[in-house]
């Protein structure tokens, strides 16, 4: 038997490959030495680098690309270098059996063991990525939960956490200069949750963010006045929508998610 390293590659934050590999790994525990995750590989240089690593490690590349160009390039280069690859739409167990020479220790049936719960989770994660940070505001009524709030109020991590619990979540950033999407006023406010943060704490977070981006002194993004204006405008929208408001200051992501879910269950 041969032990291998699996490289899970995507051009987005998509977790489909990760979920499939974790399920496949459970059938080949003694043959899979390590699983490494590489999201946001969105150019040919990134693919070349990963294929080079896979060649050195004698590994398998599990990939999912939205870009047909990157998908085609991955397939062409992997074939050229004789590196095994797997598109998440294929049969993972057969691929692993062929590479490792090991027979799976238990049955792996997508229609039963991955079942409805698994596919709901995948759909929820894909939805959260598609509707992250206001990238998409059409069909918001398909969301189970909609998070709105000013920048740096933990909208994205809360969305991903809830998606891993099978909830379809959209999150929308609020900026005074940009009108909120009309769709917010056309759906039930029971789905909508406004997120706020202590202004001093938010100033600190934004200041650190600016430092990390090398923009210190060139933006009012982290100023107290700007933060207060944004929070006041956001509160006006929350009042207009009549949605629940959650103060996320000093709260863990799990705690915030629990508040949201408890509120949904009560309703």
UniProtKB/TrEMBL annotation:
A Pfam family this chain is assigned to? Kinase-PPPase
User: What is this enzyme's catalytic activity, as reactions?
Assistant: N(tele)-phospho-L-histidyl/L-threonyl-[pyruvate, phosphate dikinase] + ADP = N(tele)-phospho-L-histidyl/O-phospho-L-threonyl-[pyruvate, phosphate dikinase] + AMP + H(+); N(tele)-phospho-L-histidyl/O-phospho-L-threonyl-[pyruvate, phosphate dikinase] + phosphate + H(+) = N(tele)-phospho-L-histidyl/L-threonyl-[pyruvate, phosphate dikinase] + diphosphate
Keyword Kinase assigned to the entry: answer is yes
This entry's Enzyme Commission designation comes to 2.7.11.32, 2.7.4.27
Which residues are ADP-binding? 149-156
Going by the record, the broad EC class of this enzyme is: transferase
Q: What keywords appear on the UniProt entry?
A: Kinase, Nucleotide-binding, Pyruvate, Serine/threonine-protein kinase, Transferase
Say which domain of life the source belongs to. Answer: Bacteria
- PANTHER family this protein is in? PYRUVATE, PHOSPHATE DIKINASE REGULATORY PROTEIN 1, CHLOROPLASTIC
Q: Which family does it belong to?
A: Belongs to the pyruvate, phosphate/water dikinase regulatory protein family. PDRP subfamily.
Describe the function of this protein.
Bifunctional serine/threonine kinase and phosphorylase involved in the regulation of the pyruvate, phosphate dikinase (PPDK) by catalyzing its phosphorylation/dephosphorylation.
HAMAP family xrefs: PDRP
Protein name as annotated: Putative pyruvate, phosphate dikinase regulatory protein
Q: What species is this protein from?
A: Acetobacterium fimetarium
The UniProt gene name for this protein comes to ppsR
């Amino acid at each position: 038997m041969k032990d291998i390293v699996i490289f899970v590659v995507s051009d987005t934050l998509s977790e489909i490959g990760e979920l499939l590999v974790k399920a496949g790994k459970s059938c080949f525990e003694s043959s899979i030495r390590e699983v490494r995750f590489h999201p946001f590989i969105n150019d040919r240089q990134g693919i070349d680098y990963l294929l080079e690593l896979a060649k050195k490690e004698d590994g398998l590349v599990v990939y999912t690309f939205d870009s047909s160009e990157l998908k085609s390039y991955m397939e062409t280069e992997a074939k050229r270098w004789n590196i095994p690859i797997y598109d998440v739409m294929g049969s993972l167990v057969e691929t692993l059996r062929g590479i490792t020479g090991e027979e799976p220790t238990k049955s792996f049936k997508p229609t039963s063991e991955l079942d409805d719960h698994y596919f709901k989770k995948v759909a929820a994660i894909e939805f959260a990525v598609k509707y992250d940070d206001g990238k998409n505001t059409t069909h918001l009524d398909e969301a189970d939960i909609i998070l709105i709030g000013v920048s740096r109020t933990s909208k994205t991590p809360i969305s991903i956490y809830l998606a891993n619990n099978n909830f379809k979540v959209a999150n929308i950033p609020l900026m005074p200069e940009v009108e909120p999407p009309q769709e917010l006023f056309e759906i039930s406010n029971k789905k909508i949750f406004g997120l706020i943060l202590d202004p001093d704490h938010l100033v600190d977070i934004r200041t650190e963010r600016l430092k990390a981006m090398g923009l210190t002194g060139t933006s009012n993004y982290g100023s107290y006045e700007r933060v207060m204006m944004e929070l006041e405008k956001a509160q006006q929208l929350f009042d207009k929508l009549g949605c629940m408001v959650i103060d996320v200051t000093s709260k863990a992501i799990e705690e915030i998610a629990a508040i949201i879910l408890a509120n949904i269950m009560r309703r």
